[in-house]
Amino acid sequence: MIGAGPAGLSAAWFLSMLGYACHVFEASAEAGGVLRWGIPLYRLPLNALRHDIQQIEARGVTIYTGKPVSPDALEKMKKDYDAVFIGCGHGRGMSMKVPGEDLKEVSEGLDFLRKLREGETPPCRGVSAIIGGGNTAIDVAAASCVWAEKRCCSIGGAVRICPLWNWKWKWHWKKAWNFRNSLLRLPLPGKRIRSS
Ligand SMILES: Cc1cc2nc3c(=O)[nH]c(=O)nc-3n(C[C@H](O)[C@H](O)[C@H](O)COP(=O)(O)OP(=O)(O)OC[C@H]3O[C@@H](n4cnc5c(N)ncnc54)[C@H](O)[C@@H]3O)c2cc1C
What we know:
CATH class of the largest domain: Alpha Beta
Helix content: 25-40%
Number of helices: 7
Distance between the termini: 45 Å
Bound molecules: flavin-adenine dinucleotide
Oligomer: single chain
Structural class: alpha/beta
Number of domains: 2
Strand order of the largest sheet: 3-4-5-6
Radius of gyration: 20 Å
CATH architecture of the largest domain: 3-Layer(bba) Sandwich
CATH superfamily of the largest domain: FAD/NAD(P)-binding domain
């Protein structure tokens, strides 16, 4: 398995249950993928993740961390192993390609979450506007409330048309954090946000 995120770890877990030997190669210093560096700790405590990973290792799966697999190494692996599973994820944010993205007050969601997990406190004050309505947006909004002690975050985008994640929305809502689902007008600098 290349990558020790949920995909690589799940593949290793199920293959080991079928009796196959599995080696997992992970570029980062610790396994877990987004669960390790992206999802805020209040939602997934490190102990819980490490416990699950130990269960996988207890089945005989070997996880090598700090081992990024290069294209050349992949070619060699194809010869050395009976099968290769690539579970490298997509750990990069996407640019919206709008003016203002490079302002110092604007952060990309995954970078923001990663820095929080690394112990950095992003310099943000007051009300935050979060563009997007998926997993990253909701976690950024909630993390802002928790760590920056914000009283209100605005989320622009698709929360209402994303019923799969209603449970997650409600879970955060129950915590009484003050989110507002909003309409946002672009470009970013100097424009006002209208709450719905
Ligand atoms: C903020 C956020 C919140 C989320 N919340 C939820 C949720 O509540 N519920 C839910 O079901 N899903 C959630 N998701 C989605 C979920 O995290 C992803 O679907 C899942 O992490 C994808 O797993 P993956 O293994 O494919 O990729 P990743 O988790 O990205 O793992 C890929 C791994 O591969 C490693 N890797 C990459 N390249 C190499 C290489 N060349 N060599 C070796 N290793 C390499 C990376 O270091 C990483 O550890 C959330 C995602 C985000 C970003």
